[in-house]
């Protein structure tokens, strides 16, 4: 993990967080890979919201592409056992 890129992503996401919290949601930053992939888990209302894809692509991904050099893509991560059709399983 590139700690500098992680810090940049974390800072950019913190600026986006109030929009999620306002709607009863939040996020957890899981990982920033060396090749610029950001893995996050949406929480609260955002976790099951039908608009979560829009939040990821038009909100979070757009924000990161403007603020973080080397950023490529955001991927939503789900806890193993969550009810989702398109899940990347992840366990702690």
UniProtKB/TrEMBL annotation:
GO terms for biological process: iron-sulfur cluster assembly. GO terms for molecular function: iron ion binding; iron-sulfur cluster binding. SUPFAM superfamilies: Fe-S cluster assembly (FSCA) domain-like. It comes from the Bacteria. Pfam families: NifU. Residues 9-75 form the NIF system FeS cluster assembly NifU C-terminal domain. May be involved in the formation or repair of [Fe-S] clusters present in iron-sulfur proteins. Belongs to the NifU family. This is NIF system FeS cluster assembly NifU C-terminal domain-containing protein. It comes from Listeria cornellensis FSL F6-0969.
């Amino acid at each position: 993990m590139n700690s500098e890129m992680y810090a940049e992503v974390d800072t950019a996401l913190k600026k986006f967080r109030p929009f999620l919290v306002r709607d009863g949601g939040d996020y957890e930053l899981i990982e920033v890979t060396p090749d610029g992939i950001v893995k996050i888990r949406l929480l609260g209302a955002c976790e099951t919201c039908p608009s979560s894809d829009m939040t990821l692509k038009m909100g979070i991904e757009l924000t990161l592409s403007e603020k973080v050099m080397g950023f490529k893509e955001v991927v939503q991560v789900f806890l193993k056992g969550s009810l989702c059709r398109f899940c990347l399983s992840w366990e702690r």
